[in-house]
Write a structure and sequence with these properties.
mainly alpha, 2 domains, 249 residues, binds zinc ion
């Protein structure tokens, strides 16, 4: 999960107007949503969702998905990749706008522009309306977020968590799902490990050339569009640390 910068996406000029128009009676919606969010997060009434609590303030089909029209703009935050698993989202049909705070539990954030992130179906579907009973999930656009403090990626494509917040994130977003682990391993085997082997071989005969090659690899892995770049940066840094002391990606 790469650190993300929300400023890369521009909030639409008329967004507050759009948000007000999304519900039939906005003041009434805000009043009921405020009452709902005053309930404890683990209160059964809250867990049953806002649509059950106050259906009268929502359109018949539930929240109007006005965010969907801005998918391309929201995609800029994560460089067209899923904000959580970092898979590339090339086809529009698999791109989903994810509410970091689920609208069923946080209706006041349903039209909060800063609550949107791009996600793939593989992460967004299992997460759905889930929310931890205490604390939050790891948030990739949080200013203090650093991947190394939360996740340790393995050379076989799998990932370990380093704290309870990361554990909840890995489990609820299914970041250890087989297809994802396989895909990470596929890229690692074909695009990263070979280059690292070459660099390691070169270090004894031509250190300067090895260092140059390592820098080029570093540039690729720092490219925000490179899939699974966080996992591969961790792997490459660890693999090259001993042979190229002082080198970092
Ligand atoms: Zn994903």
């Amino acid at each position: 999960m790469r650190k993300l910068d929300r400023n890369l996406a521009k909030k639409p000029d008329n967004w507050s107007q759009t948000a007000r128009k999304a519900v039939p009676d906005h003041p009434k919606f805000e009043q009921r949503a405020t009452e709902f969010e005053a309930l404890d997060i683990n209160d059964p009434q809250r867990r049953a969702g806002f649509q059950t609590f106050a259906p009268e303030v929502l359109p018949k089909r539930g929240f109007k998905s006005s965010w969907g029209r801005h998918k391309e703009e929201i995609a800029k935050i994560s460089h067209g990749k899923c904000s959580y698993c970092e898979c590339r989202l090339n086809a529009d049909c698999v791109m989903q706008v994810e509410h970091f705070k689920p609208k069923a539990l946080f209706p006041l954030s349903a039209y909060d522009w800063d609550n949107y992130l791009l996600a793939c179906g593989g992460c967004n579907m299992p997460k759905s309306d889930n929310w931890p009973t205490e604390g939050e999930y790891v948030r990739p656009d949080h200013p203090a977020y650093t991947p190394e403090a939360h996740f340790q990626f393995r050379s076989d494509g799998d990932v370990d968590w380093l704290n309870p917040e990361a554990e909840r994130t890995v489990i609820d977003f299914e970041l250890r799902r087989k297809r994802l682990v396989d895909d990470r391993r596929w890229y690692l085997d074909r695009f990263v490990k070979n280059v690292i082997d070459d660099i390691l071989e070169l270090t004894s005969e031509n250190y300067a050339s090895a260092l140059r090659k390592a820098s080029i690899l570093g540039e690729s892995l720092n490219d925000p569009e490179f899939p699974y770049s966080t996992a591969f940066k961790q792997y490459a840094s660890a693999a090259l640390r001993k042979a190229l002391p002082g080198f970092s990606i």
